[in-house]
Amino acid sequence: MKPLKADLLILLVTMCWGSSYLFMKIGLDSLSAFNIVALRYGLAFLLCLPILVKRYRAINLKTVIFSFALGFLLFAVSSSIIFGLKNTTASNAGFLAGLTVIFVPLLSALIVKKKPESNVIAGVLVTMVGIGLLTLNDRMSIMPGDFLCMLAALLYAIHILLTGSAAKAADIVNLGILQLGFAGGFGLLFAFIYEVPMLPSSYESWQAVLVLSVVCSAFGYIAQTIAQKYTTPTHTGLIFSLEPVFAAIFAYFFAHELLPIKGYVGAAFILLGVMIAEIKRLNASSLHDRSKEKRSGLQP
């Protein structure tokens, strides 16, 4: 696969993930939150099961333990976003979930007890201004839905850091598929405890669930794994930062969601803060990629 095709595939995955906020909100019209999580990841796991069966020899206890933990985090992330969508817009959810890029370096610095780099601190400050403009209402309070979406971003940052550790000790493909199964299992368990497990009752709900499971989860995870073998971390990071933009575009065209001017300014500040926080890492990745290409003889 050529790098350009890989970048386009990453862009397609980003578009799919950007659309997920809209489809989760649509699913809430006839399904409860834990049911959506159970169906989304349960169906995705079943679709990926043939791949897991072929790779069963690479499954060990470490893979299962890490997958269990990652699956629970994935369940918690999706549940937080879905409950958040009950009290906020798909646009807001997309931009706030994008805060994961800010939380990852902050948590990394906290774990290794190292002061965050200056660009990360600047990015956080700019992002905080954006969050205020995007979420604060006239009474200077944040809606519970917005808070849950920020919690989801924090949980997903933990998921990313744990995945980095797990990838060193387990097969990454099996890890990705098994975590889908565990996430779906947690969704089903919580649906039995707090809700009534059920299937979608309308065409729109079935459509939402199938897009979430087939397109956003099964296709998204597999396509990301394949594409990242043929493109650079720099390109991948930049393309993934467009996810909240796609979330806002889908929400505008298909749900007719409009943010006030203050909200769009806040969203722009959040994107700017994310880019500032990432710029040093992206520059370092770019230099590494160029050096690697030269050593491989890909550049004159």
TrEMBL record:
Compartments where located: Cell membrane
Record keywords: Cell membrane, Membrane, Transmembrane, Transmembrane helix
A Pfam family that the UniProt record links to this protein: EamA
Keyword Amino-acid biosynthesis: no
Segments forming domain EamA: 5-135, 144-276
Record InterPro entries: Diverse_Substrate_Transporter, EamA_dom, EmrE-like
Assigned protein family: Belongs to the EamA transporter family.
Protein name as annotated: EamA/RhaT family transporter
